[in-house]
Design goal:
The protein has 163 residues and is mostly beta strands. It is built from no helices and eleven strands. The protein is globular. The N terminus is likely disordered.
Amino acid sequence: MSLLLSGAKTITFAGTEMQCLEIYTGEAYTIGLNFTDAVGSAIDISTWTLGVDVKYYSVDTVTYNDELGQIDLGNITLDSPQGTAPTGLAVTTVSGPAGTAALYVPDDLTDGLNDRPTVPLVNGKSDPSVLAIISINVSRADTTVPANTNYSREPLGFIVRYQ
C-alpha cells in the first residue's frame, strides 16, 4: 500500500521514497487519500483505524531536479526537542467502502507555539528549511489471522516555507 499525492515530487528519506509537497505558513490543505490495491481497485477501510503524527527535521540544502521530478535534501538533522504536533492536524475516513480518507494540514504546521527552532529568513525562505514528515498511521485486522492487528505508517514529506 502506498499513498500518491497529485502534483507531488518524490524525496528519499532514510531509505524510504515518499511523496513531498512544499507549503508556506498560512496555507492549509485538505488532501484526499485513496487506498487502493495493486491493480487500482478501492480497498474497504471501514474497519481500519487511522491516525496521524509528525516529526520535524532541519535541512540545510533543498535543490530541485525537475527532470527526475524529485527534491534533493542535504544534511538532514532531527530537531530536538520535537515540540508539539500542530493543532488541527488530522486524518478522517471519508468513505470506508470506497477507500477514501482526507488528511488536513492546518495553516501553521509548526503550530505557532515557538517550540520549533527559530530560523532566519533568507530571500523569503528559511535556511535551513524545516522538513515535516507526517505519517498516516493505519491499524487493521489481518486478513489471514483476524485476531492479529497489522500496523503501518505511511510517510508524507512537507517542506515548510515561511512568509
